[in-house]
User: Fold this.
Amino acid sequence: AAFYNRGSAYFELGNYQAAVKDFNQAIALQPNYIPCLYKRCLAYWHLGQWQPALDDANAALSSAGWQDDNS
Assistant:
C-alpha cells in the first residue's frame, strides 16, 4: 500500500513520472490491484504514453472480469 499511496500523492501533485515509478513497484507486489492499474493508466495518459495507458486499462478491465466479446 505504501507505493500506491506515494504514487497517488505524486499523481495528485502532477509528478506523473514519479507516480508511474511507484505504481510499477506496487503492481510488482500485487499485479491485479485494479486501482493501481487504473491510476498508472491515467499517469501514462498524462505523459502522452498511449500504448502503456491502453495496456493498463485493458489489464484493469481483465482483472475485474470484463471480457471484450468483439475480439
